[in-house]
Amino acid sequence: xxxxxxxxxxxxxxxxxxxxxxxxxxxxxxxxxxxxxxxxxxxxxxxxxxxxxx
Length: 54
Known about the structure:
Strand order of the largest sheet: 1-2
Mean pLDDT: 85
Radius of gyration: 13 Å
Low-confidence stretches: none
Helix content: 25-40%
Strand content: 15-25%
Number of domains: 1
Distance between the termini: 26 Å
Number of helices: 2
Number of strands: 2
């Protein structure tokens, strides 16, 4: 879980579709920023619209 990553890591690299979309120093970022990098381009309603995934 991301909380554990922040406890043990100095840096976090986010990969999406095989591409580096961000490299963050844990001391200089937030978990929210990491989650945003991980989920960029995915609407918040995609998982909560009540319809089954395609």
